[in-house]
Structure formats: C-alpha cells, structure tokens
Amino acid sequence: MPGPGQESVWDYPRPPRLEPTDRHLKVVFADMVIAETRQALRILETSHPPSYYIPPADLRREFLERAAGRSICEFKGQAAYWSIRVGERLSPAAAWSYAAPWAPYEALKDHLCFYAGRADACFVDGEQVIPQEGDFYGGWRTADIVGPFKGGPGTRGW
C-alpha cells in the first residue's frame, strides 16, 4: 500500500502509459555523466518501476555505440541496443531505443532508456536508483515507488 507521496506499481496500467516527467535524471559511467535531463518521458506499466527515456539532445553520444541484438516489445515495437564505452571501460547493451515506435508511443523515437544496473549509477532527483531485478526489465526503483516488483526470481509468470 503506497504511503503519502508514493506510487504503487500495481496502480500502473497495462498497456503501459507514456507521460512526460520533469524529474532530474542522470546516468553516470566511468566517472562521466552519460545522460542528464529534466525532459524525459517515462513508461508506467503494471508491476514495473518506471522506465525513463532520455531525449537525444541530453545524451553524450560520444560514449554510446550500437550493440548487437534487437528485441520486440508487444506495445512499443522493435528495440535496438546501445553500449556505453568510456576509454577502456565498456558496458554492453546498457540502453535501448526505438527508431520507429508503434502508436501511441511515437514520442519515444530515438530516446534512450538505460538499465540502471549496467551503469555505475543512475539518479532521480538526486536519489540513486535501485535497478529492477532480472536481466530483462529496465525499471528504476526509488523510495517513492512501491511494489512488489516483477523481475526477480519467481515473478516471470506474473
């Protein structure tokens, strides 16, 4: 049950809702800020912490390179993956994007969503996030989001 100022992931819809957020987001890897914005979009989906999509203008593209592989989201379409490289450090497939997202998610075009566990740190309004469990989902857990959350052992069938 959410307390004051909290959101329950069980109140999020399915199919997911896309909405703008002006929260301050930051992604850090190898002591470099890879992305920072107050103009992100977030996806809210039942049982998942929010996934934050950062606009192209707020990405440090010199540290991003296309990664192998693609996947299909039943709602948003075909995703491509991105690695972070800073000097000799590499985080493979650390983010994903949609070049041609399906309706009604067209606003996600070319925004990147980072797996919090594949960066050194990700922040929402200065709070370091906890990555969503599992190796598939990319939600960012903060103190104002309550579960239980999909992604951990035994939750795949939820």
Verbal overview:
The chain contains no helices and 15 strands. By secondary structure, it is mainly β. Strands 2-5-6-10-9-8-7 form a seven-stranded antiparallel β-sheet, with no helix packed on it. A hairpin with a 2-residue loop joins strand 11 and strand 12. It starts with 6 loop residues before the first strand and ends in a 12-residue tail after the last strand. The model has no long low-confidence stretch (mean pLDDT 96).
Record the SSE blueprint.
Elements: E1 7-8, E2 17-21, E3 25-29, E4 32-37, E5 40-44, E6 51-54, E7 64-73, E8 77-86, E9 89-97, E10 112-114, E11 121-124, E12 127-128, E13 130-131, E14 140-141, E15 145-146
Parallel strand pairs: 1-15
Antiparallel strand pairs: 2-5, 3-4, 3-11, 5-6, 6-10, 7-8, 8-9, 9-10, 11-12, 13-14
Notable characteristics:
158 residues; mainly beta; seven-stranded antiparallel β-sheet; four-stranded antiparallel β-sheet
In short:
The protein has 158 residues and is mostly beta strands.
* Rounded average pLDDT: 96
Number of strands: 15
Through-space gap between termini: 19 Å
Could you say which overall geometry the principal axes of the C-alpha atoms support? globular
Taken in chain order, the helices and strands follow as EEEEEEEEEEEEEEE
Broad structural category: mainly beta
